[in-house]
Design a protein that fits this description.
- The structure is a single chain.
- The protein has 786 residues and is an alpha+beta fold.
- It is built from 18 helices and 32 strands.
- The strands form seven sheets. A nine-stranded antiparallel sheet has the order 7-8-9-10-19-14-13-12-17.
- A hairpin with a 2-residue loop joins strand 15 (220-225) and strand 16 (228-229).
- Helix 8 (420-429) runs parallel beside helix 11.
- The longest helix is centred in the N-terminal third of the chain and has 25 residues, at 3-27.
- The protein is globular and about 80 Å long.
Length: 786
């Protein structure tokens, strides 16, 4: 063959190889590409859906199709109309709804009148970006954001009546707006504020502020109060049920951009956030940056293998786990403290370079997070745990209590007990200690006695709380039924069990801090769970104030909560002894009897796919729709039957939380990332029944859904670069572990120490279709009772 022809053929071959390589690269998905924000949006909750947001962003901008109520509100998939685009979808917080419209102005008549139809066929939703066409107005709206600013791009038709409505006084999610004000700054900028009325959960009226800037001058500013348009050309509108608008003249397909800075500290804080985070008008750049930010965060855990559906659900789970508990501080670290009689703007401590040392956060309770967020964040996002620890210590310094679930700087007293103690204990045990450990311990110790936060039942406000029953608990070792108080969830048996676990967590933290007498005290108190075990019925049973057992006891009940149990029942709460499963096994009658008892519960729950729909938590033997029962499938690792943990974890993951359509996946109560984090952990095959709070934490193993799971470790906290879990012969049927190797050495336990992971390394699991009942049974995971 002539030399010239050889070169030509070789060149052509290289070109073909290059084309194929490029094509393959284009087909390779990034973690962010798997996320589907529309999963389970048919029956959503105000805090559930996000689109144009970043991890934990103060702003989480998205379309709202329903705006009345905490539940079944926000973005509902089957709704026909978009009512507004609002900037805040947080725990008991909302604010600054806007909507672009054209034609006859109807903004003062309310969202029922000016809402627009839309279609999913012209909609695009990915992390950090939402595109929707408002059919009634011929407007294409695109939304993206930075941490503290919303960025809008509206493509208008030709019109001399193109508006943006600011319906600042509208009822939004959790309650009404007390009053609002919007005023002009210059021909391209307006600003304002809205006072969110207090709720049953957030006890004080709370201000949210904004500054909106436009890419072209508006031609008119106007507004309304109580559905009546303000005459003339006002510079400001203010009052109850007030709102405002700006008007433009637009050409066909003309794009008008709007940037909205949000703050809880004041107008200047909102302007600071806008100027700091969004000094330009490049909308596509912010979309790309948002996608890249999400990809970086999601890529901390990389998975290979499994099905496309499983990968979509995994990264959607992970995405949910990284956003629900929102930042409330400005870019410079200022935040609004609402723990006192009046709002106070404070400043978090600064690094030497002048940047904030941490972000202040608002969040729902940590109730149940010991089996979800605590484990996941400490694995892959330790800096996030550190921010939240600092936030809680900051609130203690301001208001005198470690919070249970703050909202906008308010104490909310959501749920029961002091679940923050397991969060702090987990962080400390894993070496995440960039917070004032002594000050945190001081607050947690206070919470563990009468007058602390445990003494407040759910949402119990006032100066003399008693619904938490701490005097009873300290004196008698249990919390009885029939306590007085103005709170919810006065469920003595549940409180007793949760307090006992929280005592053990506090004991572990005390031991780490060298407080030996406290360690002994709280270790002894952690055995109080035994005081509500009734051997005559074989379940945990509520007690009355005279010490007698609750009459008419049944392990399952009807409705939201069975008597004595918080959003659950005895069939589920009987297993709530995370720190001492071996002690519980002894009460039941030994490993074989406990395994049979627990396995029967799962068999009974297969018909309802292991979930009781929200509001019916007392009816099921197993409930993976709510926090108290989300560790149950892993308990077989402790009873000498790890193959049953492998089986039931797989089945629960696929049947209860495997759906990726708008009609399933989380069952409507994802609780700010908790169910997402749980789903991710189950898919990875790692768990911690004790919540990572022991002095030497351990991970229990089940079979992952994937061929490979790589956890990229944060070198600022851990010595290792990455920890890799690999499987052989993985499939739907091959769910049982046959053998394991940890860092190249045989592993015969169904658990290993956190230190082995933090140092970097690998876990290799051989899987098969039949249980190997000899693997992992010799030494169960550590427990208070051995």
């Amino acid at each position: 063959m002539p030399k010239k022809l050889v070169l030509t053929v070789f060149t052509a071959l290289l070109l073909v190889i290059a084309i194929v390589a490029c094509s393959n690269r284009e087909m390779v998905k990034r973690p962010v590409d798997y996320v589907n924000p529309l999963v389970d949006t048919h029956k959503s909750r105000w805090i559930f859906f996000s689109s144009a947001s970043r991890p934990f962003g103060l702003v989480n901008l998205s379309p709202d199709t329903e705006t009345n109520g905490t539940w079944n509100s926000g973005y509902i998939y089957d709704s026909k109309k978009v009512r507004c685009f609002s900037h805040i979808h947080a725990w008991q917080m909302s604010g600054i709804p806007v909507l672009p419209v054209t034609g006859e102005f109807k903004g003062h008549k309310g969202m029922d009148i000016y809402a627009s139809t839309f279609s999913h066929e012209t909609e695009e939703v990915v992390p950090g970006y939402h595109k929707v066409h408002l059919d009634d107005y011929g407007i294409t709206a695109e939304l993206t954001s930075t941490d503290r600013t919303g960025f809008h791009r509206y493509t208008y038709p030709a019109s001399d009546s193109s508006f943006v409505i600011f319906d600042t006084g509208a009822y939004l999610a959790h309650g009404p707006v007390v009053s609002s004000e919007v005023f002009t700054v210059n021909e391209t900028e307006i600003a304002g504020k809205a006072l969110m009325a207090h709720t049953r959960r957030r006890p004080k009226d709370t201000w949210v502020y904004f500054v909106a800037r436009f890419s072209k001058p508006y031609e008119q500013f106007g507004g309304w109060v109580d559905s009546t348009l303000v005459a003339g050309t006002p510079e400001a509108v203010a009052g109850k049920n007030a709102g405002a608008f700006v008007r433009f003249s637009t050409g066909s397909e003309e794009q008008v951009l709007m940037k909205v800075g949000i703050s809880y500290t004041g107008i200047e804080g909102a302007r600071l956030n806008l100027d700091t985070e969004l000094p330009h008008w490049d909308f596509d750049r912010i979309v790309d940056e948002s996608l890249n930010v999400w990809d970086d965060w999601l890529g901390k855990i990389e998975v290979e293998g499994g099905t496309e559906k499983q990968r979509i659900k995994f990264y959607t789970d992970l995405w949910h786990a990284l956003q629900g508990r929102r930042i409330i501080s400005d870019a410079d670290g200022h935040y609004c403290d609402m723990t006192g009689d009046e709002p106070v703007v404070r400043q978090v401590k600064l690094e030497k370079n002048g940047t904030p040392a941490f972000n202040m956060h608002s969040f729902d309770a940590w109730w149940g997070s010991h089996w979800s967020l605590n484990i996941l964040w400490s694995l892959a996002y330790p800096h996030v745990m550190e921010d939240f620890c600092n936030s809680m210590v900051e609130m203690y310094n301001n208001g005198g209590l470690i919070p249970r679930g703050p909202s906008g700087g308010n104490y909310s007293f959501v749920m029961i007990g002091d679940p923050a103690v397991s969060f702090f204990a987990c962080a400390y045990a894993k070496g995440i200690r960039g917070w004032d450990t002594e000050k945190a311990y001081e607050g947690l110790y206070k919470n563990a006695f009468p007058g602390g936060i445990r003494d407040r039942a759910g949402y119990e406000f006032g100066d003399n709380p008693s619904g938490g029953g701490m005097e009873w608990y300290v004196k008698n070792g249990y919390v009885p039924e029939g306590l007085e108080g103005n709170g919810f969830h006065k469920d003595g048996a549940a409180m007793t069990l949760e307090y006992a676990y929280q005592d053990w967590c506090l004991a572990q933290l005390a031991k780490g801090l060298g407080k030996d007498s406290d360690y002994q005290l709280f270790s002894e108190r952690s055995l109080n769970y035994r005081n509500i075990w009734d051997p005559s019925v074989g379940f945990m049973r509520p007690r009355m104030q005279d010490g007698s057992w609750l009459e008419g006891f049944e392990p399952v009940g009807e409705g939201f909560s069975a008597s004595g149990f918080c959003e659950g029942n005895s069939a589920i709460y009987t297993h709530f002894v995370p720190h001492d499963i071996q002690g519980l096994i002894g009460l039941v009658g030994g490993k074989e009897k406990y395994t049979e008892f627990l396995n029967e519960s799962f068999e009974k729950a297969t018909g309802n796919n292991f979930v009781a729909d929200h509001g019916k938590h007392s009816i099921s033997w197993v409930d993976y729709d709510n926090q108290p029962g989300t560790g149950m499938a892993h308990l077989f690792n402790y009873s000498g039957a790890p193959w049953l943990s492998q089986k039931w974890v797989r089945l629960v993951k696929e049947q209860a939380h495997g759906d990726i359509t708008p009609y399933g996946g989380y069952h409507g109560d994802e609780d700010q990332g908790q169910m997402g984090a749980l789903g991710a952990l189950m898919a990875m095959g790692l768990f911690e029944v004790r919540g990572g709070c022991a002095e030497k934490p351990v991970y229990e193993i089940t079979s992952p859904l994937f061929d490979s799971v790589t956890i990229h470790l944060d070198r600022g906290y851990y010595e290792g670069e990455k920890f890799v879990i690999k499987t052989r012969n993985n499939s739907k049927d091959n769910m049982y572990i046959q053998s394991a190797e940890l860092n190249g050495e045989p592993l015969n336990n169904c658990w290993f120490h956190h230190g082995d992971l933090a140092g970097g390394g690998s876990l290799l699991l051989e899987l098969g279709a039949e249980p190997d009942k000899n693997w992992g049974v010799e030494t169960p995971p550590p427990s208070l009772t051995r």
